[in-house]
Amino acid sequence: MWVRVTNEGGSVGFVPPVTADDIRPTAARSFEKVRQGTDALVCLTLPAESDKNAQKSDPVGSFQDAQNELANVSGTKSDNRASTALSGPLPGGRVVAWLLLAESESLLRRHWRTVYRVQVDPKHQGAGLGTALMAAAAAYAKDALGLEALTLMTRSGTGAERFYKRCGYREVGRIPGAIRVAPNDSRDEVHFWLDL
Questions:
Q1: Which residues are in the N-acetyltransferase domain (predicted)?
Q2: How many whole angstroms from its chain centre is CA 185?
Q3: Residue 70 is inside which H or E element, if any?
């Protein structure tokens, strides 16, 4: 899914075109933090029958496939420390949207987490799943993790700013030209905050 989201123009850490080999090292690091229990994975699933056009080669298909992919990418089996929130029909459902909640290494910042890698399968965009994913993440952060706030960053010029504002986030800062997507194309890094 990460490859498809990137190649459709999603702002998830890469600039298209990408392949699975391009993303795999970053995915391994990201999912290893989930496996260790440092970061949390929030997923939305739909019943398998709602996605009849799914490709069998999709590395994140059913939730069990997602768990297996987590183990394969990180090189170890998932254990009980992995913090995963799920929303939607299970078992046998397909993961259609996911994000990560990163814990700060600073003890002074443990009352909030950073949202990153927000992704909705391109085949399911426009159906409100992104908004549902953000709401599920906020509920999980508040109710299960006891957090007071979430923060996130995105690059300007993608439409993500409007989306995050609709989800209740407020812009709290901007670093001009901090993200270089091409030699003559620098974007602002836009910082958002959500009080829970």
A1: 18-196
A2: 24
A3: helix 63-74
**DSSP β-bridge partners for residue 55:** none
- Cα separation, 83 vs 34, whole angstroms: 6
pTM above 0.85, yes or no: no
Cβ partners under 8 Å of residue 54, min gap 6? 48, 61, 94, 123
Q: Where are the domains of the chain?
A: 2-195
* Among 161, 143, 123, residue whose Cα is nearest residue 7: 123
How would residue 146 be classed by pLDDT, with cut points 50, 70 and 90?
very high
| Residue whose token pair is 């995915």 | 27
Give the 3-state secondary structure of residue 186. strand
Q: Are 39 and 83 a contacting pair, CB within 8 Å?
A: yes
In CATH, what is the architecture of 2-195? 3-Layer(aba) Sandwich (3.40)
Q: Tell me: the pLDDT tens digits for 63-83?
A: 444 545 444 443 434 443 346
Q: What are phi and psi of 97, to 5 degrees?
A: -160, 145
15 vs 5: CA distance, rounded Å? 10
Distances (CA, A) of 36 to 96, 114, 170: 23, 17, 31
